[in-house]
Specification:
single chain, alpha+beta, 2 domains
Amino acid sequence: MAAARIAEALRANPSVKAVLVQHSESSTGVLHDVRAYAQVTGGTEAILIVDAVSSLGIADLPMDAWGVDVIVSASQKGLMLPPGLGLLALSEKAWEATKQSKLPKYYLDLTEERKYAQRNEARFTPAVSIMVGLREVLRMIEAEGLVEVFRRHDRLSRATRAGAEALGLTLFPKTTPSPALTAVQVPPGVDADRVVERFATSHNITIDGGRGPTKGKIFRIGHMGYVGDFDIAAALAALEQVLHDLGQPVDFGASLGAGQKVFAERG
């Protein structure tokens, strides 16, 4: 549906030079169909710019195979590091577009950055400690295997969703959920921010709530990067206790049991 709207917009406005989309939309927990978007922009002059901050290393995003022009990401999500590194990749089509750019620029001049990168140099002082950490992260990903990394995130996502639904909760995105996190609607009469607070104060577990129009209506459980099966098992057990503490009827063990059935696929 979204791809069709993009195609319609490009037909109506052939002068459009760029389409900006997100792969994993972390405020709602939705995974977007970037491959379909690339199929739409591929035959036009528009470059497809993808925000992959919460999907790189979590969901498959083969840039060249799909025809994505620009991918922007960072170090603090699937790459398991503190914030501090911005990651950027451009297709040849995108590099050609940079030649047409007339906006004033100094710090983020991609043409200059490319010259330094080709010499294996940094144009400005880099976040060296995080770059060293990135080297270790890439070794970890290589040891686990990229395909298995994607499978693990998918498994954790499905287990979290199954656990939430086993408690009678409604998932916020009912289709195309992101493997990076799960967004869940709270029952009527419950403030999602209180769920987030209880997770922290009673169980020392950090989750997050909604933003803007979803504030107080949803909570979000992340399962990205270094997260494993037992992290989600602990979160589901905590969820049962938190809902009970907030006066909701809970079938204790239902959430954990549903999640464990998904975890069992690992064997």
